Recover the amino acids of this structure.
């Protein structure tokens, strides 16, 4: 059934239908790097079957979702839970990823999310591409906004947990 | 000579072809650290050192690449642009992999000597005769004519309710619709490389509220579909119009589940027949076979089905044939199909080969005589089809 979600930043009534929800002990999740690919591929295939081009959609969805999972993986917290909720509203799919996070990291993510917004996002991404520094988690989020047209926001659940909310708008894509 | 580098568990492959000055990377590249890519990055650097003028970077078979890998490869290319201003990079992407053109396209904003070209509908340009414009509507009639036979044949080749199936080279998707209505598989993925055919298929599905068929765009010789997914993989009337059918068969094998079956149909067009006027009909269809051969298509493939499946690694090969005739249903349907063959084959195809008018006139005559036979109250007209399937070993 549709549920109403209130954005932290914008009070907008939306009607995303929950499709899949799962959680996993964070220790188990970070025990194997390939969990990111396994989870993203499996979920992508599961939610793609009724899109106009299921294979194209699944490939894109998996790419974006894998990046988010890799971001969470790299926090490497020793405890807690990784929780994921996938929902849909028309051509937009939403991924809500909740994972352990220190207050300092919360500030990092708040800043990183702010960098994904506004007209300067693309230029910031190009600057980071041309720079010599290895890609960091904030650049991954920036790339999701620039290359996937994703809308990102952050919800701080409590002091040691954060939720990344990412809307992916490519439901109508087809070749 | 090519150089190769493989990633962990060979999930991806990088290679350099010096003859074409092409570095290609394919598969899924999702390393945790850049160090995992060291052999492939070294190969790219080595490729750059070897080339002059243009280095083609082929990523059209690159299904996945995470940011760690993307930035590592991008870093090498950007650095090379800065130290080798004489060098141009052309990155070749595919629209089948939706993220690549945009992501790699950003690099041209960083360095103008990097350009991105999307490899697209030119998968099989020779087949455009059969995919565009007026030929599409007649395909529905053809499918209806063959379906009268195949609906009884398919269960002998693994078709049953509840299976997962893929129809590769689905064309306008009408076979998938008929299968769904008759056999109710739990899932049908229908793939083709013709965007106009897929658009038609999706429109029909929408108009008739047909659900459960996933129409998807792709190259049958290099599909994004994962291994071992389907109980039954069908590929009808298509291997015969690819210049390298063994590449398609390899992919059909790959996506089929162990124990599942791959079902193919092909023609032997020179065996089309009719009475009366059998001689002129025979001559035209012999010539039609040669015309397709000129465009590297083998319309005589039907009786070679068994060999193809054996050589692709299948077991428990089952084969049979059937004849679509003017007696199956409305003879006018048969006549309409032959007329469309004449329009396309004696029209655009023969002209493109450079055939002389007197040849084309005689060529057309056989099609008209086939129509005459189909519509004659005492006549008989036939179009034979060869069917075969093989089981993927467990």
């Amino acid at each position: 059934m549709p549920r109403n979600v209130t954005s932290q930043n914008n009070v907008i009534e939306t009607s995303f239908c929950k499709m899949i929800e799962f959680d996993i002990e964070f220790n188990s999740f970070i025990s194997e790097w390939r969990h990111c690919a396994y989870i993203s591929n499996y979920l992508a295939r599961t939610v793609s079957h009724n899109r106009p081009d299921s294979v194209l959609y699944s490939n894109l969805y998996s790419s974006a979702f894998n990046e988010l999972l890799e971001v969470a993986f790299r926090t490497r917290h020793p405890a807690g839970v990784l929780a994921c909720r996938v929902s849909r509203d028309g051509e937009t799919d939403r991924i809500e990823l909740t994972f352990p996070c220190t207050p300092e990291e919360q500030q990092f993510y708040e800043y990183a999310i702010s960098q994904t917004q506004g007209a300067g996002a693309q230029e910031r991404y190009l600057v980071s591409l041309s720079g010599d520094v290895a890609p960091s988690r904030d650049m991954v989020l920036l790339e999701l906004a620039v290359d996937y047209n994703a809308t990102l926001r952050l919800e701080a659940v409590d002091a040691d947990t954060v939720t990344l909310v990412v809307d992916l708008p490519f439901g109508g894509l087809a070749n | 000579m090519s150089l190769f580098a493989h990633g962990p568990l060979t999930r991806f492959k990088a290679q350099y072809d010096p003859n074409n000055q092409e570095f290609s990377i394919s598969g899924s590249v999702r390393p945790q650290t850049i160090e995992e890519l060291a052999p492939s990055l070294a190969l790219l650097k080595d490729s750059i050192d070897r080339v002059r003028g243009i280095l083609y970077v082929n990523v059209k078979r690159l299904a996945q690449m995470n940011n760690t890998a993307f930035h590592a490869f991008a870093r090498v290319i950007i650095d090379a642009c800065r130290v080798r201003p004489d060098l141009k990079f052309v990155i070749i992407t595919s629209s089948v992999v939706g993220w690549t053109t945009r992501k790699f396209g950003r690099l041209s904003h960083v360095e103008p000597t990097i350009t991105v070209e999307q490899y697209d509908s030119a998968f099989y340009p020779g087949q455009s005769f059969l995919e565009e414009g007026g030929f599409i509507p007649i395909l529905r009639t053809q499918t209806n004519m063959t379906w009268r036979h195949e609906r009884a044949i398919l269960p002998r080749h693994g078709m049953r309710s509840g299976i997962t199936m893929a129809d590769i080279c689905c064309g306008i998707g009408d076979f998938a619709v008929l299968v769904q209505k008759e056999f109710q598989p739990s899932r049908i993925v229908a793939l083709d490389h013709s965007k106009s055919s897929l658009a038609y298929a999706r429109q029909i599905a929408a108009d008739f509220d047909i659900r459960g068929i996933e129409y998807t765009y792709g190259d049958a010789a290099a599909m994004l579909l994962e291994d071992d997914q389907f109980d039954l993989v069908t590929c009808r009337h298509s291997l015969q119009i690819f210049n390298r059918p063994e590449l398609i068969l390899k992919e059909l094998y790959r996506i089929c589940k162990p124990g599942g079956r791959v079902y193919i149909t092909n023609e032997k067009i020179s065996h089309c027949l009719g009475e009366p006027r059998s001689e002129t009909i025979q001559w035209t269809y012999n010539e039609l076979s040669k015309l397709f051969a000129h465009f590297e298509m083998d319309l005589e493939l039907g009786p070679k089905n068994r060999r193809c499946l054996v050589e692709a690694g299948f077991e428990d090969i089952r084969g049979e044939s059937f004849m679509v005739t003017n007696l199956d249903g409305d003879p006018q349907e048969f006549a309409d199909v032959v007329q469309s063959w004449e329009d396309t084959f004696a029209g655009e195809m023969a002209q493109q080969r450079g055939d002389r008018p007197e040849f084309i006139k005689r060529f057309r005559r056989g099609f008209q005589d086939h129509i005459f036979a189909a519509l004659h109250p005492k006549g008989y007209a036939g179009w034979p089809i060869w069917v075969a399937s093989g089981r993927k070993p467990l």
